[in-house]
Amino acid sequence: MALLVSFIENLPGYDFIDNFIRSTIDLDGYIQQAYTFVTELDSVTLVLGVVVAAIIFVMGVFELLKKLSKIIIVVGILVGLYLLYDNGALEGIIGG
């Protein structure tokens, strides 16, 4: 993780973007407010929030898997057709 952070911080223009964001948005203040808000919640509300977030996360993962499986199937069919075409198996159908 430290290697990734070091790589990102050494990218050209990182200092400009970092300074611009820090001067435009009080990000530290927002993070502190969010942390204070979450730590002051009672246990029932916190558990309900975690359950709702988990449900949303799981639903998102399943939707992502559905879309990726469709893309993988389409790419597989296209690769199969290319291999058939490349080996001359489709010359009787489409000519060549």
Task: Report on this structure.
The chain is mainly α and 96 residues long. The protein has one domain (14-88). It is built from five helices and no strands. The protein has helices at residues 2-9, 14-24, 27-39, 43-86, 91-94. The longest helix has 44 residues, at 43-86. The radius of gyration is 25 Å and the shape is elongated. The termini are far apart.
**Backbone structural class:** mainly alpha
Give the fraction of residues assigned to helices: over 70%
Query: Hey, roughly how much beta strand do the residues contain?
Result: under 5%
Using DSSP, what is the number of strands?
Answer: 0
| Low-confidence sequence ranges | none
Q: How is this fold's topology laid out?
A:
Elements: H1 2-9, H2 14-24, H3 27-39, H4 43-86, H5 91-94
Task: Looking at this protein, list some descriptive labels.
96 residues, mainly alpha
In a nutshell, what does this entry contain?
With 96 residues, the protein is mostly helical. The chain is 83% helix and 0% strand.
